[in-house]
């Protein structure tokens, strides 16, 4: 019989990405090549100040790049997921899926009486 302590440790989550609004922004950007700041803000239902803080944090971690420019005379900011950010997001999602798969398998085994309970 297998006890919970005999299982391998849970996959490591990326604490920087694990925060829900950061995860939302990275997931949004994973769906496009580049997006204007206000498109990300609206798509993720964030305020300007919240998104600005998130962008700064993720840019400092090299998970996204910021490009500034103009459309006509209006300043614009575009956000893009970096290759490092794309990898970090993929690894984080893989770790989350491993946790779900492990818990589901253990729950199924427990239901069938093949795992000792604590």
Polypeptide structure, described:
This protein is of the alpha+beta class. It has a single domain (14-111), classed as Orthogonal Bundle (Arc Repressor Mutant, subunit A), CATH 1.10.10. The chain is 54% helix and 15% strand. The protein has helices spanning 15-18, 20-30, 37-43, 48-60, 83-111, and strands at 35-36, 64-71, 74-81. It has a 3-stranded antiparallel sheet with strand order 1-3-2. Strand 2 and strand 3 (74-81) form a beta hairpin. Mean pLDDT is 90; it is low at 1-5.
Largest sheet: 3 strands, antiparallel
What is the number of beta strands? 3
- Please identify the top-level CATH class: Mainly Alpha
Percentage of residues in strands: 15-25%
Mean pLDDT: 90
The SSE string, one letter per element, is HHEHHEEH
CATH topology: Arc Repressor Mutant, subunit A
Cα distance spanning the termini: 12 Å
Rough outline:
elongated
Strand order of the largest sheet: 1-3-2
Count of the separate structural domains: 1
Share in helix: 40-55%
Q: Could you state the CATH homologous superfamily?
A: Winged helix-like DNA-binding domain superfamily/Winged helix DNA-binding domain
Class derived from helix and strand content = alpha+beta
The CATH architecture: Orthogonal Bundle
Question: Topology of this protein?
Answer:
Blueprint: H1 15-18, H2 20-30, E1 35-36, H3 37-43, H4 48-60, E2 64-71, E3 74-81, H5 83-111
Antiparallel strand pairs: 1-3, 2-3
